[in-house]
Amino acid sequence: MKLTFVRHGVTEWNTLGRWQGHSDNPLSEAGEHQARLLARRLKGQSFDLVYSSDLVRARRTAELALPGVSVLVDERLREVHFGEFDGRTFDQIRLHPLFATWAERPFEVPTPSGESLSEVVTRGLAWASTLPDGANVVTFTHSLFIRSLVCHLIDIPFRSSPHRIFPVPLSTPHTSLTVVRRAENDWTLERLGDDSHLEHWTSSDASQQTSQHS
């Protein structure tokens, strides 16, 4: 089985540094542009199944990146439910009386009125268990969901600290690709947070414009 995880494009809340969790915010204009650049990269590629979180920022990214392709929507692919942290910046969140407790043990301790990373991984694994063996699957989802599930699959330990924005030592930029492959029961990380399409196509467009006006 091959799983390609795509983080959604950027939103206004991302730009403002606000945690959005289950908040259903649309892509910003920049986010839509990122998704269209991703479409150039994915053009000609085929997948057995295409999935998306039910949140609009993920669904819209899938729609723009793979136009005309049927997308299966599953709420289990949502971002972490941040509860009372939702909509706040990190500077605001770390002042919350329960933040330190969550930051010390985020895998076991849920966010206030939200969920723990263990619960996120559990629903991610439940989704993955429904996929057919040998399938090549792409799913449009969210950063901490991707990082939590991938850390579990390839056995990377969580790094808990009240000084870290998120307690997972991986980076997944907007519209980046993270790829894992399973052979028997062993998962291998093939690609992590690859957003080279943003730089490649933006540079290519700029070069073409320069050539046209030179």
TrEMBL record:
Key word Protein biosynthesis present: no
Transmembrane regions listed in the UniProt entry: none
Keyword Hydrolase: yes
Domain of life, per lineage: Bacteria
Binding-site residues for substrate, renumbered to this chain: R7, H8, G9, V10, T11, E12, W13, N14, R57
Keywords noted in UniProt: Hydrolase
Pfam families xref list: His_Phos_1
GO BP: any one term: negative regulation of glycolytic process
Listed GO MF terms: fructose-2,6-bisphosphate 2-phosphatase activity
Coiled coil: none
Positions of the catalytic residues: H8 (tele-phosphohistidine intermediate), E79 (proton donor/acceptor)
GO cellular component, one term: cytosol
SMART domains: PGAM (SM00855)
The protein, known as: Alpha-ribazole phosphatase/probable phosphoglycerate mutase
UniProt organism field: Deinococcus yavapaiensis KR-236
